[in-house]
C-alpha cells in the first residue's frame, strides 16, 4: 500500500533558534493507518504535525532539512477550543474553510450540514459559538475539518482541554474517522487513553529517565483544619446563576483534597475561594487563626496560602526565574539575603538552577509549571491550592509534580487541587469533593 | 465598544434586513451634514429623521436611550461649556447647537451600528467594497477574542494577588501594576492570536487564491431607496435651513 506520509531525515529549526526542534526524523505512515506520536514535552511532536500540515513557514527564517512527503489533503485539529473557531455562528464557522477552498456557493451549505451531522452537532446553524462548551467547540472544530474531506487527519492533543465527557466525545469522533479509513496522526501525552484509537505508537524521543507511574499513597497524618469554608455561595459579575452555592468544606493539615466535576461545575471557582482570591457572596472562608482570607492583604495571604494557576504565565511578574521566586518572600518581609537563599534552594529542588537567569515566559511548559509551583512554595505556606496542575504535562513532569505534592503533604501541608485528571486523583487525593452545577454532589 | 455592540431589535422591521453598508452609508450622509452645520435647527430636523430610522429598524427606543445615557451626559456637559465660554460670549443658541449636534452625530452612528451584525458587516465589506478577506475576517476573529481578554485580565489580577501583589495603593504603584498586568495580557493575547491565525491558515486561509461566498449579501432596491431617501432628507434639511435663514455652517453659506 502507498504511504500517506513519508518522512526521511527530516528536521526543522525555528527562526532565531540555535537548536533544532526536530532532527533526523524518519517516519512512514501508510494510507488508512492510525498512529500515536508521543514523547517528552519539547521533543517536537507539534512541530512534526505542523510540518506535515504544511504550516511551517520558511519565509520567517525557519530552516528545514531532509525530505517530507505528504500524499493527500490534510486537516488538523488543535488543542485549544477557544482559538480554533473563527466565526460567531456555528454554521458559518464550518463554511469558513469551504469558502477558503473556493467550493461553489451552492455546495457550501449541504456540505456544512453533512459535516455538522457527522459529528452529531446538536444545535442549529446559527447557534452562537460562544455559547458552546469546550467539548462542543472541539466537535465543531472537527466538523470544520471534516467538511473539507481530508485524507489525512492530524490531531494535536485534541482532548487535553476537555473534561471527561468532552474527551469521550472527541475520542468517539477519532474512532469514527478511523473506521472511515482516514489516515490519522494523533499527538497525545495520555498513551493509555489513546492506545485504543491507534494501530501503532511512535515515541519521538526517549524520556531522559525511567518514569515510574505514580502509585497511590495516603496521608500519614491528618492534622487540624487550615481553612474552613462555611455556607459559601459565589456569583460572577453579570452572571445569571450562582457559580457555587451552599458549600461547606474544611481542609486539614497533611491532607490532599481533590475538587472534581465537569467543566463549569465550579471546581476552579471553589479553589480560588479557598485560596482567598475571590470573595464569597455569602458565607465565609477563614484561616485557622480566624482571619477572613478574602479580606487579607496579598502579602499576608501568601503566608497562609500558595496558589498555582492553570496557566503559569498568568502569575509571572519578573524577568528572571530567580527574581520570580524572591517576590513572595520579599513581600512577607524576608531580607534580600534570606530570600535569595530560599530562591536558590527551591531552584535546586525543582531542577531549575541552570535556568535561574532565564525569562520565565521563555521556559518550556514543564519548566513553567515547576517554576509556578516553586513560587507558591517560596513563602512556605501551610496550604497549597492548585488549578489543573497536570494540565499539558508530559510523563516526567507529571511524576515529579506528584512526588513534590506528596512530599509537601507528608511534611504537613494541606493541598487542594481542582482537576479532571482521574489518574492524579488516584495518585494523590486523600479525599475527593465532587461538584455538580455549583453544589457538592 | 459596549455602545456600538448589537442591540436586539425586531427582525420584521422594514430596515432590519437592510444591507449593513447601506445603513452605514445613510449614517455617513447624515453625519456629513451635521459636521458642516453649526446651528441648532439642522440637528433638530435630522434628529427627527433618526427617530424615524429607529422606528423603521425596529430598535426598542427605551433600550437605546439607556444605552446612550452616558452620551447625553457628555453632550450636556459640552453644551454647557460651549454656551458659557464660547467665543461670542454666553449664548443659549450656541449651547443648544453644540449639544444637539453632538447627540445627533453620535446617535446616527449608534443607530446604524446597533442593528449591524459584525459578520454581516465583514461580508458586506468583502463582497461590495472588495475589502481584503485577510483584513475583514482577521478583524472579525480578533473582535471575537475581546471578551476572552476581559476574563483573562481579571484572572491575571487574581494571579498577582496570589503572588503577594495588591493592585492598588498609591498612584505610582497603580501605574506600575497596570503596566505589568498589561504586559502579561499582551503575552497571552499574542499567544492566542498566533494559535488562532494557525487554525485559520490550517483551513486554507493562508493559501487561498480567491474565495467563494457562503452568505451572498445582495444590495437591493430597498438599500438603494434607503440611501436615496437619506440623501433627499439631507439636501432638504439644508434647503429648509436656507429658506428659514436658520442655516449656519462651515460651507454652503
Would you write up a description of this structure?
The complex is a heterodimer of chains A (441) and B (253). The radius of gyration of chain A is 24 Å and the shape is globular. In chain A, helix 4 runs parallel beside helix 5. The longest helix of chain A has 16 residues. Chain A is built from 13 helices and 17 strands. Chain A is α/β, with parallel strands linked by helices and 441 residues long. Chain A folds into 2 domains: 201 residues, 3-Layer(aba) Sandwich (Rossmann fold), CATH 3.40.50; 216 residues, P-loop containing nucleotide triphosphate hydrolases (Rossmann fold). In chain A, strands 13-14-15-11-16-17 form a 6-stranded mixed β-sheet, with helices on both faces. In chain A, strand 6, helix 5 and strand 7 form a beta-alpha-beta unit. Chain B is flat. In chain B, 30% of the residues are buried. Helices cover 70% and strands 0% of the residues of chain B. The two termini of chain B are 37 Å apart. By secondary structure, chain B is an all-alpha fold. Chain B folds into 2 domains: 121 residues, no CATH class; 80 residues, no CATH class. The longest helix of chain B has 32 residues. The interface between A and B is large, with 63 and 48 residues.
Per-chain topology:
The complex is a heterodimer of chains A (441) and B (253).
Chain A: E1 3-13, E2 22-30, E3 34-38, H1 45-52, E4 63-70, E5 74-77, H2 90-100, H3 105-118, H4 134-146, E6 152-156, H5 164-179, E7 183-187, H6 191-194, E8 200-203, E9 225-234, E10 244-252, E11 256-260, H7 267-274, E12 282-287, H8 298-304, E13 305-308, H9 321-331, H10 336-349, H11 365-377, E14 383-387, H12 395-410, E15 414-418, H13 422-428, E16 431-436, E17 439-440
Parallel strand pairs in A: 3-7, 3-8, 5-6, 6-7, 11-15, 11-16, 13-14, 14-15
Antiparallel strand pairs in A: 1-2, 1-4, 9-10, 9-12, 16-17
Helix pairs in contact in A: 2-3, 2-4, 3-4, 4-5, 9-10, 9-11
Chain B: H1 20-36, H2 41-57, H3 61-67, H4 69-85, H5 92-114, H6 118-128, H7 133-162, H8 171-202, H9 221-243
Helix pairs in contact in B: 1-5, 1-9, 2-5, 2-9, 4-5, 6-7, 7-8
Amino acid at each position: 500500500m502507498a504511504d500517506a506520509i513519508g518522512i526521511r531525515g527530516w528536521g526543522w529549526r525555528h527562526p532565531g533558534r540555535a537548536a533544532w526542534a526536530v532532527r533526523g526524523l524518519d517516519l512512514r505512515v501508510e494510507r488508512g493507518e492510525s498512529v500515536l506520536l508521543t514523547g517528552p514535552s519539547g521533543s517536537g511532536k507539534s512541530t512534526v504535525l505542523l510540518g506535515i500540515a504544511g504550516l511551517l513557514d520558511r519565509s520567517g527564517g525557519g530552516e528545514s532539512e531532509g525530505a517530507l512527503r505528504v500524499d493527500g489533503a490534510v486537516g488538523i485539529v488543535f488543542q485549544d477550543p477557544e482559538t480554533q473557531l473563527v466565526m460567531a455562528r456555528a454554521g458559518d464557522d464550518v463554511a469558513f474553510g469551504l469558502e477558503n477552498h473556493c467550493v461553489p456557493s451552492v455546495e457550501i451549505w449541504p456540505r456544512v450540514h453533512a459535516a455538522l451531522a457527522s459529528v452529531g452537532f446538536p444545535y442549529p446553524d446559527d447557534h452562537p459559538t460562544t455559547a458552546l462548551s469546550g467539548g462542543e467547540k472541539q466537535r465543531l472544530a472537527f466538523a470544520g475539518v471534516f467538511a473539507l474531506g481530508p485524507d489525512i487527519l492530524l490531531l494535536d492533543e485534541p482532548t487535553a482541554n476537555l473534561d471527561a465527557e468532552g474527551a469521550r466525545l472527541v475520542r468517539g469522533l477519532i474512532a469514527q474517522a478511523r473506521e472511515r479509513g482516514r489516515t490519522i496522526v494523533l499527538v497525545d501525552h495520555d498513551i493509555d487513553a489513546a492506545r485504543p484509537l491507534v494501530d501503532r505508537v511512535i515515541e519521538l524521543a526517549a524520556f531522559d529517565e525511567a518514569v515510574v507511574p505514580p502509585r497511590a499513597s495516603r496521608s500519614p497524618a491528618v492534622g487540624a483544619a487550615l481553612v474552613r469554608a462555611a455556607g459559601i455561595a459565589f456569583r460572577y459579575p453579570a452572571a445569571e446563576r450562582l457559580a457555587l452555592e451552599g458549600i461547606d468544606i474544611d481542609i486539614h493539615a497533611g491532607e490532599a483534597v481533590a475538587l472534581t466535576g465537569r467543566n463549569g461545575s465550579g471546581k476552579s471557582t471553589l479553589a480560588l475561594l479557598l485560596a482567598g482570591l475571590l470573595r464569597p457572596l455569602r458565607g465565609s472562608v477563614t484561616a485557622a487563626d480566624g482571619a477572613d482570607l478574602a479580606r487579607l492583604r496579598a502579602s499576608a495571604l501568601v503566608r497562609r496560602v500558595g496558589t498555582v494557576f492553570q496557566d503559569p504565565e498568568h502569575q509571572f511578574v519578573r524577568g528572571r526565574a530567580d527574581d520570580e521566586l524572591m517576590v513572595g518572600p520579599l513581600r512577607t518581609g524576608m531580607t534580600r539575603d534570606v530570600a535569595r537563599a530560599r530562591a536558590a534552594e527551591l531552584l535546586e529542588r525543582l531542577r531549575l538552577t541552570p535556568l535561574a537567569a532565564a525569562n520565565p515566559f521563555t521556559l518550556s511548559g514543564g519548566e513553567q509549571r515547576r517554576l509556578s509551583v516553586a513560587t507558591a512554595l517560596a513563602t512556605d505556606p501551610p496550604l497549597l491550592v492548585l488549578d489543573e496542575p497536570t494540565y499539558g504535562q508530559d510523563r516526567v513532569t507529571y511524576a515529579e509534580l506528584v512526588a513534590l505534592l506528596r512530599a509537601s503533604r507528608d511534611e504537613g501541608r494541606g493541598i487542594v487541587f481542582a482537576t479532571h485528571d482521574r489518574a492524579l486523583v488516584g495518585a494523590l487525593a486523600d479525599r475527593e469533593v465532587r461538584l455538580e452545577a455549583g453544589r457538592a454532589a | 465598544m459596549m455602545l456600538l455592540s448589537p442591540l436586539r431589535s425586531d427582525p420584521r422591521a422594514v430596515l432590519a434586513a437592510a444591507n449593513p453598508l447601506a445603513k452605514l452609508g445613510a449614517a455617513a450622509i447624515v453625519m456629513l451634514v451635521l459636521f458642516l452645520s453649526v446651528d441648532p435647527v439642522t440637528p433638530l430636523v435630522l434628529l427627527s429623521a433618526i427617530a424615524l430610522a429607529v422606528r423603521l429598524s425596529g430598535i426598542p427606543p427605551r433600550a437605546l436611550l439607556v444605552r446612550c445615557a452616558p452620551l447625553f451626559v457628555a453632550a450636556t456637559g459640552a453644551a454647557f461649556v460651549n454656551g458659557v465660554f464660547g467665543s461670542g460670549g454666553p449664548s443659549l443658541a450656541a449651547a443648544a447647537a453644540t449639544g444637539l449636534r453632538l447627540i445627533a452625530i453620535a446617535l446616527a452612528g449608534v443607530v446604524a451600528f446597533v442593528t449591524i451584525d459584525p459578520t454581516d458587516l465583514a461580508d458586506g465589506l468583502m463582497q461590495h467594497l472588495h475589502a481584503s478577506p485577510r483584513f475583514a475576517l482577521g478583524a472579525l476573529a480578533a473582535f471575537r477574542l475581546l471578551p476572552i481578554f476581559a476574563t483573562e485580565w481579571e484572572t491575571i489580577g487574581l494571579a498577582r494577588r496570589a503572588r503577594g501583589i495588591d493592585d492598588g495603593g498609591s498612584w505610582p504603584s497603580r501605574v506600575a501594576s497596570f503596566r505589568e498586568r498589561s504586559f502579561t495580557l499582551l503575552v497571552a493575547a499574542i499567544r492566542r492570536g498566533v494559535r488562532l491565525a494557525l487554525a485559520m491558515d490550517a483551513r486554507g486561509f493562508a493559501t487561498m487564491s480567491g474565495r467563494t461566498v457562503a452568505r451572498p449579501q445582495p444590495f437591493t432596491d430597498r438599500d438603494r431607496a434607503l440611501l436615496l431617501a437619506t440623501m433627499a432628507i439631507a439636501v432638504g434639511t439644508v434647503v429648509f435651513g436656507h429658506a428659514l435663514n436658520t442655516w449656519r455652517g462651515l460651507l454652503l453659506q
